[in-house]
Design a protein that fits this description.
It is a single chain. The chain is 44% helix and 21% strand. It is α/β, with parallel strands linked by helices. β9 and β10 (153-157) form a beta hairpin.
């Protein structure tokens, strides 16, 4: 059957259409994505503005039309940190649900971590042993570790690249003082959770998902997307030097780097600081980039819950 998953994230509204059935690998059929950057539409008190809510509604309605055109039989829609943390998030979603007749679920940070972990486990299989999975989104950092399909530990921290850029930097490039302050903040937050992750043992395979990690891997030498599903890794030794360089570059220069989009370029210094800190504090020398992440995890969980025909 043809399934669709609508992801209302901090940076984008993304519809992924996949052909799938139980016991088979889901195959991507179509992708429709628009940049919204909901964090930029937050008013004082973390309230989503009327303009932001209207733009969100327009993008969701557009995605639903695309899903119908592509023959989607079953659509799952979810929202993550930006809507989850907006003081009027429930109100905005209730209005959306009424207007579109689509049940948009709000995922908790731990749910995000668990579903992303499921996708990574299915991609790499049981032979990977204990997995450690890191994901840097626009609003949060997710960390999960485990030996099964459900992680032993799932952590979500408010350390998304978009959030930190908005809240911690006053200019682009940011000042050296702001970089140092962000670095201290990020490392303090992650260090508080290291023990929770480490108590289950060292990972056999460390994995990264998300656009931020893919871009960091690309600028440090990983293969471009045009080469297909080849192995891509991000080495901490390579990342360390780039963390400082990215912070000193202006957005246009960053956007000229391999694999970096213009829309994501302003967030990349903060994302690099988070990636550097997570790899250092968790003792990870290398992360392998996984093509599957949260959206695929949502689809896989849906397939698992479907009755056998």
């Amino acid at each position: 059957m043809r399934l669709g998953v609508l992801d209302i994230g901090s940076n984008t509204v993304h519809l992924l259409v996949m052909d799938a059935h139980r016991g088979a690998r889901p195959l991507p059929a179509y992708s429709h994505k628009v940049e919204l950057r909901l964090a930029e539409h937050m008013e004082a008190g973390e309230r989503l503005s009327k303009e932001g809510a209207a733009r969100l509604r327009g993008h969701v309605e557009e995605a639903l039309r695309v899903a119908e055109d592509k023959g989607v039989e079953d659509l799952m829609a979810f929202a993550t940190s930006a809507v989850r943390e907006a003081v009027n998030g429930e109100e905005v979603l209730a209005d959306l649900n009424t207007r579109t007749e689509v049940d948009i679920q709000v995922l908790s940070g731990q749910d995000e971590a668990r579903l992303t972990f499921l996708a990574v486990r299915r991609w790499f299989g049981w032979s990977s042993g204990r997995l450690l999975v890191l994901d840097i989104g626009g609003g949060s950092l997710e960390i999960a570790s485990g030996i099964d399909e459900q992680p032993d530990v799932a952590v979500s921290l408010p350390l998304g690249a978009g959030r930190l850029t908005r809240d911690r930097f006053s200019a682009d490039p940011p000042s050296a003082e702001e970089i140092r302050a962000l670095r201290r903040h990020v490392r303090t937050e992650i260090a508080r959770k290291v023990g929770d992750v480490a108590r289950y043992g060292r990972a056999d395979h460390a994995v990264a998902t998300s656009k931020t990690f893919r871009q960091l891997a690309r600028i440090t030498g990983a293969a471009p997307s045009s080469e297909g599903n080849v192995r891509r890794v991000l080495r901490h030794a390579d990342l360390v030097g780039w963390t400082g360089r990215l912070a000193e570059m202006d957005p246009r220069a960053r956007a000229g780097l391999p694999g970096v989009s213009e829309g994501r370029a302003p967030q990349l210094p903060a994302g690099a600081i988070v990636a550097d800190a997570a790899m250092d504090l968790l003792g990870v020398g290398e992360l392998e980039v996984c093509p599957w992440a949260l959206r695929e995890g949502v689809i896989l969980r849906r397939l698992d819950m479907m009755p056998e025909r």
